[in-house]
Amino acid sequence: MGTPASEIITIDGGVMEGVHSRCFHVTECQGEIINPTNLTKQPHNPGLRPQHLTGLQLVRDLCGGQLKGGEIGSTDISFYPGPVKSGEFVANTGTAGSICLVLQIALPCLVFSVEASTITITGGTDVASAPPFDHYLLVFKPILEKFGVKFDCNIVRRGYYPKGGGQVLVKTSPVMSFLQPVDITTAGQVTRFSGRSFVAGVIPIKVAHAMADSASRIIRQVYPGVPFKIDRVKEPSEVAVGNGSGIIIMAETSTGCLLGGSALGRKGESAEKVGEAAAKELLDDITSGGCVDHHLQDQLIIFMALAKGKSRIKTGPVTLHTETAIHVVQLLTEAKFNVVKDEDHKSCIIECQGVGLQQSSE
Q1: What would the DSSP string read from start to end of 90-142?
Q2: What are the pLDDT digits (tens) for 312-324?
Q3: Which of the residues are catalytic?
């Protein structure tokens, strides 16, 4: 793990959508020293945000590494990794920073540890600019299992903007030697829709019903004969912090593909509009012909890169998140990606020859 100073990899954080948090799960798995710079060039919230910093500190703890410049708003950081460790870990954003984003950084590292580990993460479960944690449970987790990744999640408490205070317990198991390559390229036919429409705090249950009914109307106009079931939930006060509302809808296909659409309630926006937004987001992903939704595609890049063999996934239009993830992974590994557009330009096949990273030994 002792990379000489001359071999420190400098990464321009102003490239694409900003690469700071995407570097660290790769470099820790590979044992490379990195120096992301120019983080002020990111288009939104320049520099490190609370959820990014919390994720980087967690990765540091996972490997007993060193993190220099690790402060909120920092624009120049260096990371010196060590071997991945197993154990019990705690991470707290101290805000409503997304728990999903923290876990995105840590999970690829933990699956290559020698023994099972537990992480308790505190922050926001349902916040803007990140998928809701239910997307992790309903969509991300089952798809990741195709790579041979095994982990369990339990939402202890939900937290919303601006208070945060949500908490998730994650238990991971080590991968069996290598991650398996995947081929997710046949969309199939939609066989059912399911989901969850929720409110918390002072927001009445009728808002959950209105979001669900609106989403149902939109979906049934396009898929009138496909089963649709959505739970309408008023979160008990003991398992939710603050006021919040939102909806997630999942589509399952005949070939086992899972796609999700979601939206959060916002001040001044009607519940009907929120439900409509979630439904339209999901339908847009389905009609693009992809086998994974736009939230999921960039999250799979690191696992494709580390798997042993060739992986292929069919997506809708490649997002800037995904382009950035591919850029970073190819800087830090020998994985090779190729993106092939379909003739209609609505869908793409992302191919990757993975490096076949082996489980670490302590």
Answers
A1: EEE-SSS-BHHHHHHHHHHHHTTSSS-EEEEEEEBSB-TTS--HHHIIIIIHH
A2: 999 999 999 999 8
A3: 321
